[in-house]
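Researcher: Structure prediction, please.
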Amino acid sequence: MRLLLDEDTQARRLVNLLRARGHDVLTVGEANRIGAPDSAVLTLAAGANRVLLTRNCADYLALHERTTTHSGILCVYQDSDPAKTMRYEDIARALENLEKSTLPLLGMFLALNAWNY
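Model: Predicted structure follows.
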């Protein structure tokens, strides 16, 4: 999957794990967009045909509700209970499950947590 990782998801360990599993990963940092507004990050993802992966769910859901002209937004919801928070391996597995589903992501907003099984 072609992914753009938002600032809050660009941990080196996650990036390396996703790349090792065959994903084409670009981070906001690698794209020199640190500090860019969320709307600019979403536009970058759409222009590069990349699905955005983020933990900034509320802000990107609001953007998605204004426009669905994007390549897809995958949100990782965090929980106050650490046992329910997705680890990097969980994120990678959820991405694999989502890919196997062949669900079209264009213009979609999905909680990646639902794909962690």
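Model: Residues 88-101 form the longest helix (14 residues).
Researcher: Thanks, that helps.
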